[in-house]
Amino acid sequence: MTTNNHTPSICTLPVELIYRILDTLDNETILFSFGYTCKRFQTIIHTYNQYELNFKLISKRYFHLICHSIHPENIISLTLSNNKQTPDQIKCFLSIFSIQQFIRLRSLTLNKIDEDDFYTIFQFKNTISSLSFTFLKSTLQNSQTISLLSSIISNKNLRYLDFNLSPKDLLWSNQCLLQTLIISNTLNFTQFSTIISNLLLLKKFVLQDCIIHKNDIIDCSIRYLPLISLSFNDSKLNMDNCELLLCLFPLLERFHIVGGDYFFDGFRWEKFIKKNLLKLKKFEFAFCGNTNMLWKNSNDIESLITPFRTPFWIEHKQWFVVCCYFIDTNNYTLYSLPICKSNSILTQNPFFRKLNALSLCIENEWPIGSTEYLSTFIKLSSIRELSISIDLENEYVLDKLTNITNLLNQLYNLQSLRIDNCLTSAEIIRLLVPNHVEYLRTVVRDIDDMKFIIEQLTHLSSITFEIFGKMKYFLEDFLTWLMETRNCIIHKNDVIDCSIRYLQLISLSFNDSKLNMDNCELILRLFPLLEHFHIVGGDYFFDGFRWEKFIQKNLLKLKKIEFAFCGNTNMLWKNSNDIESLITPFRTPFWIEHKQWFVNILTQNPFFRKLNALSLCIENEWPTGSTEYLSTFINLSSIRELSISIDLENEYVLDKLTNITNLLNQLYNLQSLRIDNCLTSAEIICLLVPSHIKYLRTVVPDIDDMKFIIEQLTHLSSITFEIFGKMKYFLEDFLTWLMETRINSTYRYDDQFLSIWLGKINN
User: Fold this and answer.
1) Is 749 a member of any domain?
2) F-box domain: which residues (predicted)?
């Protein structure tokens, strides 16, 4: 008798379930990994009909692989782009497919499309319900384009439209069924009223601003009931005109506005909303203004935010508002939480910049957005000590632990942590304490928990336990275990005999010193033949004149001193002169000329955390420590685009190349690199460009250098060369070579720049 054993596997799942799995995967994984697993999966990927293709940032190789692996009738969403990284991508796509083949296409995004290609796509009827587009040129070249756009808008299938043109000449039919309209432009009131009068089903309207002139008449007796969401992303409206507009939409549920200082009256907003916007559930705003005078304490700022702290805002609507004040400029920003426009409104200058100790008590639910809220008025990177009291005996335990972990990870300069809760288990403490914390104080349930924490958190420098109950009876055994496990030594009332000299020691390092200057000098006198001294310490060591005097008298053999001293000014320094006062004692002839020891002062924690594009110009010598200096105010890991201009015709060439290479290796998320110097050889460019770069723009002396770069940097997806001088006479031969060398490459040439989207290497 034979027994059949059926082992469950993904291969035996019903095709409907496999389709659900494919919904969560990206296209490359589906087509080139999943599809090659077995014959059944190969068949399934050809019948799966929910592909969403986004070609905005893609290599030419994968573009063609996907285009030749997929059936157009299975695509429901498509994004095409003619940006510099993918020049003429749309034209290339249309040479492979006819738009009529995409019978299931519902969503289409076209970035920088040529008007002719736009006409090619929309000359036939379509079933697209969502359309977003920008044109290659800022002004329309073809008078027929407006007519075509008007006909697209009237398409009964279209529900979502996003574009950046002025709607001045567009026709808005009352047969249009649009529900969402996004216009990245400013409208006058006539255009605004025309749109909302004709789009009878419009529910969401997003625009930059609506300009209301003195002669405009707003009929407040008219009501536009369908609209439930309205956004002004950069408004110059005043409060009076804003109220007139909002009165037109009594059923509004969401209102978003970024504007100026006309909107700071919270009492007026409250009164208006209570009377005219009874359905409003979500109010997002960011208002910017200037005090015209220096505010020196938080009470002044509180006067701005007090009107937004009535029971209406806090209890009834639960709309929470934050005010940020910029001391240097007297500017301030009042905004709602969560932040509605963080890329341009959220301050990177919290009010309490120098706060280094924080205490939190969380009894019930962890407040939504509280970490983000804290960061608006406290500089989290300055916090060195945190005391946190948490109740882990209710239904919000998991949420609290997740949010505490998130907060602790953002406090990346935190050194000392105190956790107050005798019910907190040792396992939870271990999970909470990040690796950068050095000092821990906590309460645990028993001696075994104390041992567990010491064994697991090996990165701690010190720990304090609160002893209670019967734990004290087992303390002696615990201390015996501790001495055997961690070799703990405590020194009290040490006496240093300075008559003793240790002549054999020539190198001494303190990697994390709590010494003061007096004791440091006592120790160093023991080693008169010291040649190398390294110390990392606090603010006891900032007197460069004292160091100079001591070294000249006691350490005559010292050749190398390496140090890093950290401290706090206890006051806000507003200019570089204040900082210079610290470094001046280290710039005497003794330091600079005789010893040639160079000292720099750095501020900790990047100021521009969200910066993603950087431009550098290096003319002469690469400044010593400049990469490290950059990292103190720029988050290097956030940089996606770098433009660098370098002069390689002087004696500092090797130093520059070394430092540029070091910088590029630290910019490990860099994708786009621009190198501006027509004297830079192709060999140097190839040495500089790391393998994680996808898009390169550069200047080279001749056509042969262009060929060399393309041959050597095979990891690039696209490249742009600046064409100058006699190079344009040889361009035709170069393009012939390119098409033979890199199959299916596309390019765009505009008399100055040649942008190439690189195709497959011809072997």
Assistant:
1) yes
2) 7-58
- pLDDT greater at residue 23 or residue 631: 23
CATH of the domain at 481: 3.40.50
Specify if 710 maps to a domain: yes
- Retrieve residue 734's tokens: 């170069």
Let me know if residue 281 belongs to a domain.
Answer: no
Return all residues near 581 (Cβ < 8 A) that are at least 6 apart: none
Residues 618 and 749 in one domain: yes
Could you tell me the pLDDT band of residue 394, with boundaries at 50, 70 and 90?
low
Range of the domain at 518: 507-594
What whole-number distance in Å separates Cα of residue 591 and Cα of residue 544? 9
Count of domains for the chain: 3
- DSSP 8-state class, residue 5: -
DSSP run (H or E) holding 81? strand 75-81
Separation of alpha carbons 341 and 516, rounded Å: 47
Residue 542's nearest CA partner among 502, 583, 576, 513 is 583
Assess whether 456 and 530 both reside in one domain.
no
Beta strand 439-443 with 641-646 is: unpaired
Closest CA to 55 of 39, 33, 31, 79: 79
pLDDT the model gives residue 264: 84
**Of 537, 567, 594, which residue is a domain's last?**
594
Residues 478-508: pLDDT tens digits? Answer: 777 776 676 443 333 445 555 556 666 788 8
Question: What confidence tens digit (pLDDT) does each residue in 254-312 have?
Answer: 999 988 777 888 999 999 999 999 999 999 988 888 777 666 666 777 788 889 989 99
For residues 442 and 523, state if they share a domain: no
What is the rounded CA–CA span in Å between residue 678 and residue 687? 16
What's at 354, amino acid-wise? K
Res 475: pLDDT: 75
Q: Is the pLDDT of residue 509 over 60?
A: yes
Examine the domain organization and report whether 741 and 662 are in the same domain.
yes
Gap between the terminal Cα atoms of the chain: 58
Please tell me whether residues 449 and 544 are part of one structural domain. no
Q: Which residues are registered as beta bridge partners of 210?
A: 187
- Contact assessment for residue 616 and residue 674, using Cβ atoms and an 8 Å cutoff: no
Q: Are strands 613-618 and 160-163 parallel, antiparallel or unpaired?
A: unpaired
CA atoms within 13 A on the CB side of 325: 19
Q: What is the mean pLDDT of the chain?
A: 81
Considering the domain boundaries, does residue 606 fall inside one? no
pTM: 0.56
Do 547 and 457 lie in a common domain? no
613 and 639 in contact (C-beta within 8 Å)? Answer: yes
Q: How far apart are CA 160 and CA 145, in angstroms?
A: 19
Q: How far, in Å, CA of 457 to CA of 470, rounded?
A: 25
Q: Which residues contact 448 (CB under 8 A, 6 or more apart)?
A: 426
Q: Which run of H or E residues covers position 627?
A: helix 626-633
H-helix or E-strand containing 334?
strand 331-337
Residues 415 and 477 in one domain: yes
Which residues make Cβ contacts (< 8 Å) with residue 292, sequence separation at least 6?
Answer: 330
**What pLDDT, on a 0 to 100 scale, did the predictor assign at position 615?**
84
Residues 6+ apart with CB under 8 A from 640: 612, 613, 669, 670, 671, 672
Instruction: State phi, psi for 400 to the nearest 5 degrees.
Output: -65, -45
Domain-ending residue, one of 486, 515, 547? 486
Q: What is the pLDDT of residues 667-696, one digit of tens each?
A: 888 989 998 875 667 888 888 888 889 999
With tokens 């009165």, the residue in question is 247
Average pLDDT over residues 420-437: 78
591-644 pLDDT, tens digit per residue, is: 878 888 877 665 544 445 667 888 887 777 776 667 776 776 677 888 889 988
Contacts of residue 515, defined as CB under 8 A and 6 or more positions apart, other chains included, come to 523, 537, 540
The whole-number pLDDT of residue 438 equals: 82
